Amino acid sequence: MAEIDPESLAEVAYGIFEVYLNRELHARGPYLFELVEQGADFEDDVREIFERFEEDYPVLAEALLRLFGGIDAIYAPLKAGEGALPSKTTRMYWIVQDAPGPAARGLDDEQVGKWLIFVPADEVDEAWRKVRDETVKGSLGISAKVSTAKPNPDSRDERSVIYVYTRDWADEADVMRVRERLRDLGFLERIGYKRNIETYRGEYSEEGRKVTYYSA
């Protein structure tokens, strides 16, 4: 078996830890973004959750400690907005916020699709807050995600992008309900809706060629 590069392992470990942390924090009460925006001190929570993470994933926890040097160095960027605000997040390509309740389908299901909202990087935090908060309320789609400040080699646009997922691209009434709610939030310009099917086929919009299924 090929030896895993320590830096790559640490990056994977951080991604898994952040998902783990968000889940455990929300099980205790507020989401990570709520703690950050409230200016709360949640270092003790991070320490306790990391101890559980270390029990469950000792190799990954060790990789994180080698990368950061200690829990203090993990906590500091989290408190500053890492994983909560797109402009402050440099270790993950995406921030994801699921709607409450059990998901009818996973985000990788072929029936799932998403509205794509492109915004300038200096406006993404405000735009994301609107979409995120409505997603948490359950008044948009099944999930949403936003690109972050971490440079993404797969990015095809200098702007930030927010995806707003719906459970079934064939349910036009629900797809358009979500679009109308986005208008209510201030997203008035025409945007496109893309099915997962096109994404899996590697189809992307090019000059003179669009792959969006809906546009509104």
TrEMBL record:
The protein, known as: DUF1917 domain-containing protein
Q: Record's Pfam families? A: Bles03
Its domain of life reads: Archaea
The Swiss-Prot or TrEMBL record describes its family as follows: Belongs to the UPF0696 family.
Please name the InterPro entries in this protein's record. Bles03, TIF_eIF4e-like
Q: Which residues cross the membrane?
A: none
**Coiled-coil stretches, from where to where?**
none
